[in-house]
Every structure is written in structure tokens, then in C-alpha cells.
């Protein structure tokens, strides 16, 4: 028994093929997405639709995917995280891929993360924002000062740094974390470093022979946050050859530094004056404080320890 293709004449086969094509074009024209384009662009005619059948089919398929979006990770579109738009050029048109909101949000989050370098900072503080801060009367002044600082930096001003101090768990580091994230939202880079991490990194840099480059990096970053200053035993080397140089260069370049501490500024002076042998070096303590005290606004935070609540 012969196959149908062997029995049907070439002319009839061509006619059948043409009918299928016309049916496909009809279906394409009547699709809601294409009908909407035709309403907006009445000059779009059937020949253009026929000539651009594959492009328009892709347009329908990918826009439908977006209407039923499974999320960025499972995006089935040809260019992940993008959707097609039809761009007209006179009587011609082409597909242009446009970044979707999910992809844009991911990209912006990645860019913000690149602006912030954190060293030994807990994840919750790294993700802190002013929206996520628990509001309280005791935190009001600190939050207002932090927001004002961010606004001044964003506007290109050169504000004083901030010195948040108070007992454990009152939110000093969290507010500092919110500051660096707010600055990143506005394209301003920062480094937030716990003092213990600074001490370890600088000691390791001796063998790596890059102490100078790390000092330069911390001296030149637009905003430096030193977390929990005064909590670690400090050596004369770290005080005089590392911190003193960083603070001096930042002071000279009018770059603000933010500190969090359990110590008041007077107590911090005593901390910098102690020697590991039990003596005091008041002059050296006073010298480094001259690079801190005049360039910060001290803000005291009080309240309950939220780490246990």
C-alpha cells in the first residue's frame, strides 16, 4: 500500500502546506499578545507577521513564561532573567531583550555586596537596614544621627564620623550595619571590620609582606567602620604602626570613620594608654585619641541586651 505522500500530487501537497501556514499565521495574528501589538501599531501587516513568524513565536512563548514566572533560578527564557520587547524601526521591527525586575534586583544586590567588605561581621548585621531596625526611644538619637550621616555622604558632604558606645547588645553594630547598606544603595563603598579581625589580618600581613597595601586600603575607603573597638588587648605595634597611621591618613583626607564600642571616649583613651606590661603611655594614648575624638560625634545607646530577648 502506497503512502499518502506518494499518492498526493505535488500541487495538492503545496496547497496543503500553504493552508497550514495560513492557519498558523491566523493563530499568531489572533493571539492576544500579537493582537495588542497590532492595535498599537496598525501598520503591522500580515506579510511582516509571516516573515517574522519565528521571532513572534518566541515573543509569545517567553512573555507567557513571564506571566507564569517560576522565579529567576528556574527562568526558562532564552536569556535568563530577560523578557522580549518588540522595537519598531519604521516599517521594520526586532526583538529586544529587557532585564526583568527579579534579575535587576539580583544584579543590584550583587553590586551592593561588592561595595561592602565585611570582616568577621555576623550575617544579621551584614544584612541590617534602617527598615529592619527595632525602633525604640533609646535608639532614636542614634538612628537619626545615622540617617543624617548617610544623607550627608550621599550629597557629597564631609560629615564627622560617629562613635556609638554603650553596653552589650543595645544595637550599636546593627545601626552601623544599616549605615553601610544604606550607603551601598547609593553607590558608596565601605569596609566594616571587627577589631579582632583587623588585628589578625595585620599580623598575617607581615609574613605576606602586604601590611602597607592593607593600611592604604583602610585609609582610602570612603567610609570605614571599626566594630567593637576597645574589646581586644592591643599591642603598641597595632596602636602606633597600624591604627595611628590609618587614623592620621583618614583625618588628612577628611574621610569619616564610624566606631562601635563598649567604652566611652575617655575610657578609650585609657585603653590606648595601657601597655601589655601593666604600665601606661598616656602621651601615646592621647596622640591616637587626637585622631579620633575631634572627628566623631559620640552617641550613647542604652537599653536591654537584645541578644537575650
Fold and architecture overview:
With 309 residues, this protein is α/β, with parallel strands linked by helices. 52% of the residues lie in helices and 15% in strands. It folds into two domains: 4-99, no CATH class; 106-308, Rossmann fold (3-Layer(aba) Sandwich), CATH 3.40.50. It has a six-stranded parallel beta sheet, with helices on both faces. The chain is elongated. The protein starts with a helix and ends in an 8-residue tail after the last strand. The mean pLDDT is 85. It comes from Seinonella peptonophila.
Quick description:
This protein has 309 residues and is an alpha/beta fold. It has helices at residues 4-7, 10-30, 32-40, 46-51, 53-67, 101-115, 123-126, 140-154, 172-185, 195-208, 211-220, 236-252, 265-273, 282-289; strands at 82-89, 92-99, 116-119, 161-166, 190-194, 223-227, 257-261, 296-301.
